[in-house]
Structure formats: C-alpha cells, structure tokens
Amino acid sequence: MVVTDNPQTPQEKVPFDLPAYLQQRQSQIEAALDRAIPIAYPEKIYEAMRYSLLAGGKRLRPILCLATCELAGGTTEMAIPTACALEMIHTMSLIHDDLPAMDNDDYRRGMLTNHKVYGEDIAILAGDGLLAYAFEYVAAKTKNVPAQRVLQVISRLGRAVGAAGLVGGQVVDLESEGKADVSIDTLNFIHNHKTAALLEACVACGAILAGAPEADLQRLTRYAQNIGLAFQIVDDILDITATQEELGKTAGKDLQAQKATYPSIWGLEESQRQARQLVQAAIAELDSFGEKALPLQAIAEFITSRTH
Q1: DSSP character string of 206-237
Q2: Per its UniProt entry, which superkingdom is the organism in (predicted)?
Q3: For the whole model, what pTM was predicted?
C-alpha cells in the first residue's frame, strides 16, 4: 500500500470557513447600507427606512448576489449596489408583511416592527421609499458594468417583486389563510413567488452583472430556486420548533393564522427530508463551477442547519 503526501481524496470536501466568510461579507454590506441612506429632510421617513434596513439579519440575499458575481468572474464592487437594492426590497417586504392588514406582527429581528415604532402610515411609506430607492440605487450607483446588463438587472428585480413574484405570492398566501384544503401545488406557488423569487433574483443578478453565459445563468437559477424553497420549508419548521427569542419574531404565527405550511401538509420529518433533498439538488447544479462555488455550496448547506 502506497501512502501519499496528498491528504485530499476525491471524496473529501475542500474546507470552507462559512462563518468567517459571512462575517466579512456582512460587515461589507452593513457599511454599504449605512452609507446608502443618510438622514435628510423629512427626517422621520429616512429614520423609519433606516430603522428596518439596519436592524441586522443574516444578509443572505445580498451575500448571494456578491458570491454569485464573484463566481461568474465579476467583482464585489460591481455588485454592491444591486446587493444593497436587494436588501432594500427584502426589507420593504418585511415592513409591509408585518402590518396589521397582512401578518400583524409586533416583532421582527428581536425589535419592535416598523409600524409599532413609527405608526402604520409611516411604515407603509418607509416600505414604498425603500422599494423606489432600490431601483434608483442600481441605476445610479452601478459602475464598470455595461448598461445592457444593468437594464437586465433592473428588469429582473421588477419581476421578482411584482405581481409575477413576491406580490403575487403574498396575494395567494392571504387568500389561502384559514382554508383546510390548500394543496401542495398552491403552497409551492405561494413560496416559489413569495420567497424563492427574490432569492432567485439575488443569484441571477449577480451572474448577469458579471456577464455569465446563458448556460451558467440557467444552472445558477435552478440552484437558487431550490434553495429558495428549502429556505421556506425550514422557516415553516422553525415556526413550530423554535422560540420567539431564537427567531427574533413571534413564534407559532402560522398556526395562529391557520396558514397552510409544509409541516401541516407533510409533517415535520417529511418536511425536513424535502428540504435536504432540495439543498442536494441545488448543490448538484454547482458541480461544473468547481471550487469557485464553495461559498454558494456552503450557504445552501447552512439553510437546512440554521436555527433561526
């Protein structure tokens, strides 16, 4: 038997320090978001926008955008404006989702929700302000990227957040509340639009900014669709199994609102299996990218192991 000096075999994973990677990227994104919206007159609206935008969170969406842009041969500098815009859009969706007319939540990320601090009127306007500014920010701040790619990104963002994406998913979600016969197809529609569409845009926009070829864009899009649905399944599981302190928001809200969830249809064990299967399918889409895809692979695995 010959012993070689090479410790790595084809079966072994290349080590990747995800916590260090996330911390570095989070710091970069937090600083960029803080710079993006300075306080101006009328101060109240800028304060309300900043209150929710800078309230922490995992920042997975902008990180996915940066990681994909780098994987496809771009730089974080060319992707930062789009990454910030994605977080602005996501924050808008949280502010509006928490309103009494929607999910009626008092806490988000361990803090009082926007409307509890600023009132419903200002919360609605803060969300509107973030949504509008997201598109302005991409158009005005993206540097060293051909204009055609920037247009593609703006188009992709618009589709992800509109009636064909997040808004459409939210409508079906609201219409399904309290119904005992919500099918798995309807539930998939809700979350492919409400959750996965924006995650898909994060990945696709990063690839578009870097000029990724169409075949790579399709692979990365499938990766994002799979992790988007897995993310929602895990969210549904955590709503049952985690505490309010762990979640940073009210636990058990889905049950109280009589919402259809993956555990309510499949049960916990099958939901966990489905989430793992989706993550495995997502990682398989990254095979052709080699070690460049390690951040995206690690983020996919993190989705099913997270506790909040």
Answers
A1: HHHHHT--HHHHHHHHHHHHHHHHHHHHHHHH
A2: Bacteria
A3: 0.91
Q: Tell me: the pLDDT tens digits for 27-85?
A: 999 999 999 999 999 999 999 999 999 998 899 999 999 999 999 999 999 999 999 99
For 158, 160, 175, 185, 295, the CA distances from 224, given in Å and listed in that order, are 17, 13, 26, 19, 13
Q: Tokens for 215, please give them.
A: 């075949």
| Cα–Cα distance, 120 to 7 (Å, whole number) | 59
Q: What is the span of the domain harbouring residue 288?
A: 18-305
User: In the beta sheet, which residues pair with residue 111?
Assistant: 108
Query: What angle is formed at CA 56 by the lines to CA 50 and CA 60, rounded to 5 degrees?
Result: 115
Alpha helices by DSSP H, the chain? 18-36, 43-53, 60-71, 76-97, 114-118, 120-141, 147-161, 166-176, 184-194, 196-210, 214-241, 244-247, 253-256, 262-266, 268-284, 294-305
Residue 117 bridge partners (DSSP): none
Domains contained in the chain, number: 1
Q: List the one residue out of 236, 238, 302, 272 whose CA is nearest residue 67.
A: 302
Q: What is the pLDDT of residues 235-292, one digit of tens each?
A: 999 988 876 665 665 655 666 666 789 999 999 999 999 999 999 999 999 999 999 9
82 in any annotated domain: yes
Name the one residue in this structure whose structure tokens are 């762990």. 246
